């Protein structure tokens, strides 16, 4: 796993309802290229219009080992983007 990801909040365009989060590898990318990658994936994944809001850069070096071993199956993976979308 890359040690840093750009993190975005995903919301619907019509009422700004928060519907998920997107993580994009920072390996070889800047924030704007990561935003483009997230939008590319979301256009294929979501049927409704969406917006992405930059939250910051996440550093995984101090992450609990239990998370990396058990909790990653909840994400949809579209390398270099990982999504967590709230079920409706």
Report the sheet-strand fraction.
35-45%
How many DSSP-defined strands?
5
Shape, please?
Answer: globular
Biggest pleated sheet: 5 strands, antiparallel
Count the helices. How many?
2
Distance between the terminal alpha carbons, to the nearest Å?
Answer: 29 Å
Order of helices and strands: EEHEHEE
- Strand order across the largest sheet: 3-1-2-5-4
Class inferred from helices and paired strands:
alpha+beta
Oligomer: single chain
Unreliable segments of 5+ consecutive residues? none
Proportion in helices: 10-25%
Mean pLDDT: 87
Radius of gyration: 13 Å
What is this structure's SSE topology?
Elements: E1 4-12, E2 18-25, H1 31-45, E3 50-59, H2 65-70, E4 76-78, E5 81-85
Antiparallel strand pairs: 1-2, 1-3, 2-5, 4-5
Can you walk through the features of this model?
With 88 residues, the chain is α+β, with helices and mostly antiparallel strands. It is 24% helix and 40% strand. It has 2 helices and 5 strands. The protein has helices at 31-45, 65-70, and strands spanning 4-12, 18-25, 50-59, 76-78, 81-85. It has a 5-stranded antiparallel β-sheet with strand order 3-1-2-5-4, with helices on one face. The longest helix has 15 residues, at 31-45.
Concise account of the structure shown:
Helix content is 24%, strand content 40%. It is an alpha+beta fold and 88 residues long.
């Amino acid at each position: 796993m890359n040690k840093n990801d750009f993190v975005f909040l995903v919301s619907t365009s019509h009422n700004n309802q928060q519907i998920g989060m997107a993580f994009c590898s920072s390996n070889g990318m800047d924030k704007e290229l990561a935003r483009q990658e997230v939008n590319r994936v979301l256009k294929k994944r979501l049927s409704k219009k969406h917006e992405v809001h930059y939250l910051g850069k996440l550093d995984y070096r101090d992450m609990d080992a239990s998370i990396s071993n058990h909790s990653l199956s909840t994400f949809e993976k579209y390398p270099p983007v990982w999504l967590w979308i709230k079920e409706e």
